[in-house]
Write a structure and sequence with these properties.
The complex is a heterodimer. By secondary structure, chain A is of the alpha+beta class. Chain A contains 15 helices and 13 strands. In chain A, α9 crosses α13 and α12 packs antiparallel against α14. Chain A is globular. The N and C termini of chain A lie far apart (46 Å). In chain B, a hairpin with a 3-residue loop joins β3 and β4. Classes of the chains: A alpha+beta, B alpha+beta. Chains A and B meet through α2, α3, α10 and α15 of A and α2, α6, α8 and α9 of B.
Chain lengths: 422, 251
């Protein structure tokens, strides 16, 4: 496997990262499982179609962009590229047994399936389709490898680890439809939003730069697994997460509006989407910040909470969340985080335009995670966040109130989130 | 007269739009209570002049037909196990009627749809519905007192009119508690205690059931249908087999 740094590149002046021309973001098995779970809760069986379509669109754009840039043609070569890419990004292993008419794809150690087992153990089993990302990715790879005017491939999950099967198997068949190539989320979408007159991006803090190098040096093992501390780490196309979140949110809102329903389901979904990022970033940023290479390079963590939270924000920025700045911290009371661009801002602006509504659950969850880390984790002891601390905090503490006070989507020059910790 | 307007059940119980996405020639999906013919949920192509409620009531007798015809055609043992599919062809439509537990599922295609394709698409839809539709509740086991041998005895003792000190006197001033509300509260407690992400349990139940947080927080106003939906949601969250929540919640 290649190291992540071989294929992941920064997007200049945007504070984001891309593979080829597609924007990507670092995530964990927590995020993958919890967000998919939230979509399932919101949409039921329809959620499978929404998730799989988001995965197909994002993967098609990603694999297509790399194949085009490298001049890779030919069915076997494209399938090999997809397998290599999937493993390198830390998403697990895929094996294709397909031809122009379809076939089967076998998955093992997949981010969702294995991540679900890691979170919930072997006793909890799902009764429904589970790994939409692998299904959409496999179908996208096959559709590029065996193009046809007649239609693209669609993957059905026939076996899945979390349903109690021995492994994950996807059956691919052509779907007769007018096929529109997916757009994904390109770096040009971010560059357009920044604009030519934007001030140049300030240099990331040394901790942020070092973390960027540290992540770039990560190499997946032969099973396609990258581990950082206790979490399974992976790089995902940012379009997948964003399309999944907003398609679901819009479907809920549209239906509520059509029915004149008074039941407020959309805020519940936003809360669960926010929790997915909060859980993921609490564990991932905590593990990275407490990692031996970072401690060796920078020594003991600062005792001043202002310095500490700025360093934690720099670590999060190195995972693809943009150039985060901590504009205010009143310990145990208030944290204000601002950023110009995040992947979800770029996606929403490119696909849906502006909105006066609060639309950044990912940024809100990330700010909450930073607030929890700076308030409840004693990094000076060199132990980071002990196992079970997050669950204990969630069980015992009142959730923080988080408010999106400014957003580029509402016409502001940057996005700002305020976490009330009282 | 059966009302054609969407019923509460049709709109609230289940959204079928996702099942119809990308299925060529599909005209309508009608899910109904097989025994009584009441509509449970439906989807139909925009502009189609078809009344799901009439379809539901029209196919009501098919469950009985299947229980008679299955054994007659296939032999008693095999016929009782097999769940027959009815194909109903008219000049404009081909309709497949499946049975999923206590529900009938009518899947209506255009007459021009290739029969093999339509049959396969219908099976896929039914397979998904099989996971989604609620399971019937088994009646709660009734604890019968053990039979005791009768023996002649003295005169019956006077009824015990004394309340034990540790046993509070019945509250006659307040309204009686709604047992359904108590059941929902117990269900939420059970999920919060046993789910891996206890802090998400209430929000997940509210979202998954479609009832919202207010209803879950104030369950007194809920009816038995809502309880069924909540129990199904709880089973999904906890990864329990359908219909087993009652069993595992027993103290």
């Amino acid at each position: 496997m290649m190291s992540l740094g071989t294929i992941v590149r920064p997007v200049p002046d945007a504070g984001l990262f891309a593979v080829s021309d597609q924007i990507v973001i670092g995530g964990t098995h927590h995020d993958a499982v919890l967000l998919d779970q939230a979509v399932w809760d919101a949409l039921g069986s329809e959620g499978w179609a929404v998730r799989r379509q988001a995965a197909f669109d994002a993967s098609y754009a990603l694999i297509g962009a790399i194949a085009k840039r490298l001049g890779i043609e030919g069915d076997r070569e494209i399938v090999d590229l997809a397998i290599e890419l999937f493993g390198t990004l830390g998403l697990g292993q895929l094996r294709f047994e397909i031809g122009a008419t379809g076939g089967e794809v076998f998955g093992s150690d997949l981010l969702f399936g294995s991540g679900f087992r890691e979170r919930y153990g072997e006793t909890l089993r799902l009764r429904h389709h589970a790994d939409a990302f692998a299904a959409g990715f496999a179908a996208a790879a096959a559709s590029i490898a065996y193009p046809s005017d007649w239609g693209s491939f669609e993957a059905d999950e026939t076996q899945c680890l979390v349903r109690g099967d021995a492994g994950c198997v996807f059956s691919l068949s052509r779907r007769p439809q007018t096929f529109q190539p997916a757009e994904g989320l390109a770096r040009s979408d971010a560059e357009q939003l920044v604009g030519p007159d934007a001030p140049p991006e300030s240099d990331p803090a040394p901790v942020g730069l070092y973390t960027r190098d540290l992540v770039a040096s990560c190499v997946a093992n032969d099973k396609g697994i990258i581990r950082i501390g206790d979490v399974r780490f992976a790089v995902l196309p940012a379009a997948y997460r964003a399309q999944l979140t907003y398609d679901t949110l819009h479907l809920i809102e549209k239906r509520a509006s059509a029915r004149g329903a008074t039941t407020k389901l959309a805020p519940l979904f936003v809360e669960l989407a926010k929790d997915a990022t909060r859980t993921s970033m609490f564990h991932l940023v905590g593990a990275l910040y407490d990692s031996a290479p970072l401690r060796d390079a920078f020594g003991a963590p600062p005792t001043d909470p202002h310095d500490l939270v700025e360093q934690l924000a720099a670590v999060a920025g190195a995972l693809g969340w943009g150039s985060l700045a901590v504009t205010e911290l009143v310990p145990n009371e208030r944290l204000v985080v601002s950023v110009t661009l995040t992947p979800e801002v770029v996606y929403y602006a490119a696909r849906h335009g502006g909105t006066p509504m609060s639309r950044l659950p990912g940024l809100q969850g990330l700010a909450e995670a930073l607030a929890l880390l700076v308030t409840h984790v004693d990094f000076s002891r060199g132990e980071g966040a002990p196992p079970g601390l997050y669950e204990k905090l969630m069980a015992e503490s009142r959730p923080f109130h988080v408010e999106e006070t400014r957003s580029i989507l509402s016409g502001d020059r940057e996005c700002e989130v305020v976490v009330d910790m009282r | 007269m059966i009302e054609d307007a969407p019923t509460m059940e049709a709109e609230g119980a289940m959204v079928l739009d996702g099942l119809a996405v990308g299925v060529d020639h599909l005209e309508a999906i009608v899910v109904y209570f097989a025994e009584v013919g009441h509509l449970y949920a439906s989807w139909k192509r925009k502009g189609l002049e078809l009344s799901p409620a009439r379809v539901a009531s029209g196919f009501v007798g098919l469950a009985d037909v299947s229980s008679r015809v299955g054994p007659a055609l296939l032999g008693d043992a095999e016929g009782r196990l097999d769940s027959p599919v009815f194909t109903f062809e008219t000049s404009r439509h081909t309709t497949f009627i499946h049975r999923v537990r206590s529900f009938g599922v009518a899947i209506v295609f255009e007459r021009e749809a290739p029969l093999g394709f339509a049959r396969m698409a219908a099976r896929n839809i039914v397979r998904t519905l099989d996971q989604e539709l609620p399971y019937p509740r088994e009646p709660a086991p009734v604890a019968l007192p053990e039979a005791r041998a009768t023996a002649p005895s003295g005169p019956p003792a006077p009824p015990d009119m004394q309340f034990e000190a540790h046993e509070p006197a019945p509250d006659t001033q307040h309204q009686a508690r709604n047992p359904l509300g108590d059941r929902v509260r117990a269900l939420i407690r059970h999920v919060e205690t046993n789910a891996r992400d206890a802090h998400l349990a209430r929000a997940r139940l509210a979202l998954r059931s479609g009832l919202g947080l207010d209803a879950v927080g104030h369950p007194e106003a809920l009816n038995a249908d809502a309880l069924l939906v909540l129990e199904t949601a709880a089973e999904d969250i906890l990864g329990l087999e359908p219909g087993t929540l009652t069993e595992v919640m027993q103290p």
